[in-house]
Amino acid sequence: MAADRSYYSGEHRRHGTNIQVLAAPDGTLLWTSGSLPGSAHDLTAARIWGIPHRLKTTGLITLADKGYIGAGEHVRVPYKGRNKPTSQKDANPAHARLRGPGERANAQLKAWRILRKLHCCPLRAGQLVKAILTLQLREAR
Question: Where are its TM segments located (predicted)?
């Protein structure tokens, strides 16, 4: 199908999607985006969905990986580079520890068998993830 060509990776020989996920500090899933082609950069995807702008307008701060460098002051990323001062070297593991619950939230999504090998158009992956989010939130109550 022509609509899903942008989702196909010739290198990996499969379709890939980029879905943005926001989780609470305790790892509870809060929001998921629709799907974009897997080749979309994380920061580009976040900007398409308006995440940095909404964080700025609400005054919330979030932790992210190095794929979000340049997202703005409300998105905290680890320090990069080799010759960092000791304070920055100590800050990066602390940043990773704080991000851990959010990474577990992503792992919970990926554990759903239906997402491992999609048998539908990749455009629907975002809808599937939103349905899974609803099921997980309902189960948590």
Answer: none
The residues near 22 (Cβ < 8 Å, ≥ 6 apart) are: 29, 30, 31, 32, 51, 62
Written as tens digits, the pLDDT of the chain (141 aa) is: 555 566 555 555 556 788 999 999 999 999 999 988 888 899 999 999 999 999 999 999 999 999 999 999 999 999 999 999 999 999 999 999 999 999 999 898 888 888 777 777 777 888 888 999 998 888 877
Q: Determine contact, residues 136/30, Cβ cutoff 8 Å.
A: no
Q: Is the entire prediction scored with pTM above 0.85?
A: no
* Type of residue found at 60: L
**How far lies 19's CA from each of 6, 97, 128, in Å?**
15, 22, 11
Closest to 128 (Cα-Cα) out of 54, 49, 56, 34 = 34
CA atoms of 1 and 114, how far apart (whole Å): 20
